[in-house]
Write a structure and sequence with these properties.
The chain is mainly alpha-helical. The protein has 2 domains: 2-69, no CATH class; 82-197, no CATH class. Helix content is 40%, strand content 9%. The protein contains 8 helices and 8 strands; from the N terminus they run E-E-H-E-E-H-E-E-H-H-H-E-E-H-H-H. The protein has helices at residues 23-33, 50-56, 98-106, 116-127, 134-139, 159-168, 172-180, 182-197; strands at 9-10, 19-20, 37-39, 44-46, 86-87, 94-95, 147-148, 155-156. The strands form 4 sheets. It has a two-stranded antiparallel ribbon. Strands 3-4 form a two-stranded antiparallel sheet. A two-stranded antiparallel ribbon has the order 5-6. The longest helix has 16 residues, at 182-197. The radius of gyration is 25 Å and the shape is elongated. The protein starts with 8 loop residues before the first strand and ends with a helix. Residues 1-5 have low confidence and may be disordered. InterPro entries: Znf_C2H2_type. GO terms for molecular function: zinc ion binding. Keywords: Metal-binding, Zinc, Zinc-finger. This is C2H2-type domain-containing protein. Residues 147-182 form the C2H2-type domain.
Length: 198
């Protein structure tokens, strides 16, 4: 009988007698009949909580892709899943990450004419030394590592580097104030307005 052939795939859910000719068809049966939750990352049927399965297998909660280590599933992998919610403070460009928007400003790509020096000056004035080693910025026109994470003391060449670090590590909580603060945006916009009048 064809049902006894190893070429067919039987649903193992109690009370379900469905057999499919391919594993892909069996997965679709599980989706349609809700016999199991299908993990799209490993193509298996989960009889339980998908989130628990993904956590136990270093899986992405959005696309279900599995990773060898926990860190591989964090940070950079998540970026394509983000909406472009960060609007540039100087033009109409939008970005998926705050750090990428800041990099756009630092690199001089913004039509506002912002330079890395302009941005660093605003950040140094507002941070009061909390995130920026202000002496380095005021003494050296091109400081080596003026930005410092207040949680782990790691130093960065640029504010965008510090923010990228915050977006990808456990240090994010200590930098939330700087990242989400409207005061930096308002100060930047005032500086750009003053520059445009000159």
């Amino acid at each position: 009988h064809w049902c006894d052939s190893s070429a067919y795939h039987r649903c193992s859910k109690a009370g379900c007698d469905v057999e499919e000719s391919s594993y892909a068809d069996l997965l679709q049966h599980w989706r349609d009949a809700q016999c199991y939750t299908v993990c799209e990352g490993c193509s298996s049927g989960i009889d339980g909580d998908l989130a628990t399965h993904l956590q136990g297998n270093n899986g992405c909660m959005i696309c279900h892709q599995h990773f060898k280590t926990l860190l591989s599933g964090d940070g950079m992998h998540q970026i394509p899943h983000y909406a472009a919610d960060y609007k540039c403070w100087g033009c109409n460009c939008t970005f998926r990450c705050f750090s990428t928007m800041i990099l756009h400003l630092e690199a001089g790509y913004c039509e506002s004419g912002c330079t890395i020096s302009d941005l660093n000056e605003v950040i140094a004035d507002l941070s009061g030394g909390r995130y920026v080693m202000k002496d380095l910025i005021s003494i050296h026109p091109d400081p080596h590592l003026p930005f410092e994470c207040p949680k782990c003391d790691r130093e960065f060449r640029s504010y965008s580097g510090l923010m990228q670090h915050a977006e990808q590590t456990s240090c994010s909580r200590s930098l939330t104030h700087a990242q989400k603060g409207r005061s930096l945006q308002r100060a930047f916009e005032r500086m750009i307005l003053i520059k445009s009048r000159c």
